[in-house]
């Protein structure tokens, strides 16, 4: 199985050097230059490891890790930083990081730390297929954006699928508006907030074949997808 790594580094030259090294080691690398873009990409694709610079524009590495942990509690996160003091390391671990590498570092050390973190997640070619999610009497193919029921079939738009993916990952739990807006649109303001409300209305209509399924508006907080 191809191992996918999300690399976030705002220094483009260093980002290219690291991504080239990782690719030469056989990994598939997605390189982002800021935390906001990275959070969107994380929600769009499936990754096995995250490597985050700490000091980045729009969303720093620690904040990005905290947001990622709301979506995935297991994926390993490795921080890269020029700061090597104990306080920063403690903050990194508290934000959800698993390891810490201080710049400058050599390629062999990065290779060894990446390999060690990947061993923890036990990736195999027979990995369970989590691309199709069951929601009540519906199935949702998160890769092909296909929502199916015996009486209904709909290919969702990319943003519809991204919103539904977030809600279905957290079935029967509240997902905050801020988290959805940042993961799907990369920003949290009034205008994209109104767009989210329109998308929620559309998704509710798609689920009309199963009355047990609801997308509940938790006032002032966010939304909850339920199938009970």
Salient structural properties:
single chain; 228 residues; alpha/beta; Rossmann fold; Arc Repressor Mutant, subunit A; five-stranded parallel β-sheet; four-stranded antiparallel β-sheet; 42% helix; elongated
Write a short abstract of this structure.
By secondary structure, this protein is an alpha/beta fold. It contains eight helices and twelve strands. The chain has a five-stranded parallel β-sheet, with helices on both faces.
How does this model look, in words?
- The protein is of the alpha/beta class and 228 residues long.
- The chain is built from 8 helices and 12 strands.
- The strands form 3 sheets. It has a 5-stranded parallel sheet with strand order 2-1-3-4-5, sandwiched between helices.
- The chain folds into 2 domains: 4-121, 3-Layer(aba) Sandwich (Rossmann fold); 132-226, Winged helix-like DNA-binding domain superfamily/Winged helix DNA-binding domain (Arc Repressor Mutant, subunit A, Orthogonal Bundle), CATH 1.10.10.10.
